[in-house]
Amino acid sequence: ARRLDHDIQNLLDATRISSDGIRPRKEWTELADIINSAVERCRGRLAGRQVAIDVPADLPLVFVGAALIRQALVQVIDNAAKYAPPDTPIRIGAGTNDKEVTVSVADAGIGLTAEETERIWDRFFRGERAGAIASGSGLGLWIARAFIAAHDGRLDARSGGAGTGTTFSLTLPVRQAETLHLAGEADE
């Protein structure tokens, strides 16, 4: 039932992206809250698995549609849980520079070949190796990337090849001037 619900939600999201486009309802949000909420939504898939979360307390606020960012992160975490052996950890981290904040999700799973790295963002793409391990529609990463792009961000994947694991990096812009202005208003 949970998998069917996930597949139906993916189809609804794909329809919304294709027909209406994405208009995030943005608000200032703590990225740590989004990460924790995404991990909580994936609890069933992550049961019994070691999940290491390293999120600094001093991350800047982000001006995003939190629900869309959370959904994108859920897709990525779900993939890590699907394609990595249950006895291997999933590592979730975050970091920032002056212009961007990045959330990474790393696994020690099946990794990506060069062809898969290029094609995983295509709608309905499922690599041959992926189909042998877990079911899916091939929409999850396409949806996640569209949600991140709607926030002027990027979603990238790195892998050393088959069997070496994969690291997904979700990068969002930081609006420093607005952050400083918001902090100034909070002090008043």
- How many H/I helical runs? 8
Helix content: 40-55%
**Rg value:** 17 Å
Shape field: globular
Helix and strand run: HEHHEEHEEHHHEEH
Strand order of the largest sheet: 2-4-5-7-6
End-to-end separation in angstroms reads 50 Å
Helix and strand content put the structural class at alpha+beta
The low-confidence runs, each spanning 5 or more residues with pLDDT under 50, are none
Number of strands: 7
- Beta-strand residue percentage: 15-25%
Mean pLDDT over the residues:
83
What is the multimeric organization of the chains shown? Answer: single chain
Tell me the major beta sheet: 5 strands, mixed
Task: Describe the protein.
This protein has 188 residues and is an alpha+beta fold. A hairpin with a 7-residue loop joins β6 and β7. The model has no long low-confidence stretch (mean pLDDT 83). The strands form two sheets. A five-stranded mixed beta sheet has the order 2-4-5-7-6. A two-stranded antiparallel sheet has the order 1-3. The longest helix is centred in the N-terminal third of the chain and has 18 residues, at 2-19. It has eight helices and seven strands; from the N terminus they run αβααββαββαααββα. α4 (66-83) runs antiparallel to α7 (140-149). The protein has helices spanning 2-19, 31-41, 43-46, 66-83, 114-119, 128-133, 140-149, 176-187, and strands spanning 27-29, 51-54, 62-64, 90-96, 100-107, 154-158, 166-173.
